[in-house]
């Protein structure tokens, strides 16, 4: 009897868990009326409020794209700032629906942490920033340096590996807050600051005198950054993944926020399906047929998002590089939207 009761309890728990998954994040988000997106909160160009309190950044716009797909309104999103220690637990616990916080895809995060990463929204790599007055031109000259680094990140592990591999020594200065870590670096507590190269550009842009600092040429890692969702909810993963890719596909199609209404008249069957003129994609995702149209109209294509937040005409002055379309020598590529 006891064995039977235990077996029944196990079955019941499995059914409850299955029911919870079946309910789905997409349905929960729709019922709530807004998307909860975990973001950086401190990283200029990727996730940070401006002087008026309006959230700006490439990751912020990725979250807005998801909101546009779900609600037809890119503004139906609440941004939740998370640090490196709380970002994954916040997603796992359901505090946020999606993490759009410059997170690197890794094997352990996909498995041990129970996360699924959507399409990459920024290809990056780890580098080093130093003050020009230090007279250093290469990371190989940093033997014996003190290095500012965020804890609990792939950056911290890569740093140790790089110095060990090259037979060099360093002393890490670890502070669990990007803003405080930046202040420490600019105050001279560290000889170097290591992070993803895009983050270094964003941090340098906020320096008292940005021209006093240089980013060294070495890139010591691969850091594909992407939105993340919880394991076990394929329907929600599909929405986040396709919303991220829709901006890239739009750039491939030559569709922008300015010409998207005119492109509704296109006779190209791929564009007709993509913009919802020919129905099917929206139904498959569980959202409105104009989901991609709403993303492009309200947020823009990937090129627009990139240039607006981190491009050569911003304070970060980043070239497209690996983040150019595959047709222009980059890695940005999407499967057919059909």
UniProtKB/TrEMBL annotation:
The keyword Transport applies. Residues 34-263 form the Solute-binding protein family 3/N-terminal domain. Keywords: Signal, Transport. One of its GO terms (biological process) is amino acid transport. CDD domains: PBP2_BztA. InterPro entries: Bact_solute-bind_prot3, Solute-binding_3/MltF_N. It comes from the Bacteria. SUPFAM superfamilies: Periplasmic binding protein-like II. Residues 1-23 form the signal peptide. Belongs to the bacterial solute-binding protein 3 family. This is General L-amino acid transport system substrate-binding protein. It comes from Candidatus Moduliflexus flocculans. The lineage of its organism: Bacteria, Candidatus Moduliflexota, Candidatus Moduliflexia, Candidatus Moduliflexales, Candidatus Moduliflexaceae.
């Amino acid at each position: 009897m006891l064995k039977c009761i235990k077996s029944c309890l196990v079955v019941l728990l499995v059914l409850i868990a299955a029911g919870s998954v079946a309910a789905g994040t997409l349905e929960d988000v729709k019922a709530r009326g807004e998307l909860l997106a975990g973001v950086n909160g401190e990283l200029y160009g990727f996730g940070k409020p401006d002087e008026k309190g309006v959230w700006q950044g490439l990751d912020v716009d990725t979250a807005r794209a998801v909101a546009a797909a779900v609600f037809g309104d890119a503004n139906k999103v609440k941004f939740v700032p998370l640090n490196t220690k709380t970002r994954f637990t916040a997603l796992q616990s359901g505090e946020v629906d999606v993490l759009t916080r410059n997170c690197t895809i890794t094997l352990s995060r996909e498995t041990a942490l129970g996360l699924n990463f959507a399409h990459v929204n920024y290809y990056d790599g780890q580098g080093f920033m130093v003050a020009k007055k230090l007279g250093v031109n290469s990371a190989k000259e940093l033997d014996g340096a003190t290095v500012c680094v965020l804890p609990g990140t792939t950056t911290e592990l890569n740093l140790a590996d790089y110095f060990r591999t090259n037979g060099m020594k360093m002393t890490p200065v670890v502070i669990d807050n990007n803003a405080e870590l930046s202040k420490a670096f600019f105050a001279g507590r560290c000889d170097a600051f290591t992070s993803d190269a895009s983050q270094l550009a964003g941090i340098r842009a906020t320096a008292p005198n940005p021209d006093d600092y240089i980013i060294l040429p070495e890139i010591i890692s691969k850091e594909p950054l992407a939105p993340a969702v919880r394991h076990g909810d394929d329907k929600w993963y599909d929405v986040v993944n396709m919303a991220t890719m829709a901006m890239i596909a739009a750039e491939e199609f030559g569709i922008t926020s300015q010409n998207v209404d005119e492109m509704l008249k296109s006779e190209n069957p791929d564009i007709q399906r993509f913009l919802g003129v020919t129905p099917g994609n929206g139904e498959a995702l569980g959202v409105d047929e104009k989901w991609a149209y709403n993303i492009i109209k309200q947020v823009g294509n990937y090129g627009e998002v990139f240039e607006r937040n981190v491009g050569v005409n911003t304070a970060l002055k980043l070239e497209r590089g690996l983040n150019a379309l595959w047709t222009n020598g980059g890695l940005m590529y999407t499967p057919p939207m059909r």
